[in-house]
Design a protein that fits this description.
Shape: elongated
Structural class: mainly alpha
Oligomer: single chain
């Protein structure tokens, strides 16, 4: 499998590996993919439980409560 990444993203990921925070670049990418898939599954379950996608202002409120920067939940 081949995956193309922007150079700055690749440099940052290699920095994480070089700092010993990941065993390898492959392990780092696999962990990032697991995190994204878990998030997607969680959002899908939330939509199922609520009978639809929560409004953006609900996501914004949670992000504020968690001290996270504003973002979008597009996807």
């Amino acid at each position: 499998m081949t995956v193309s990444l922007p150079p700055e993203l690749l440099d940052d990921a290699r920095g994480v590996v070089n700092a010993g925070q990941a065993a390898s670049l492959s392990a780092f990418v696999a962990d990032a993919l697991r995190t994204q898939l878990s998030r997607a599954r969680g959002l899908a379950e939330l939509e199922r439980a609520l009978g639809g996608r929560p409004p953006q202002d609900a996501f914004d409120a949670v992000r504020r409560d968690l001290g996270l920067p504003p973002g979008t939940t597009a996807g």
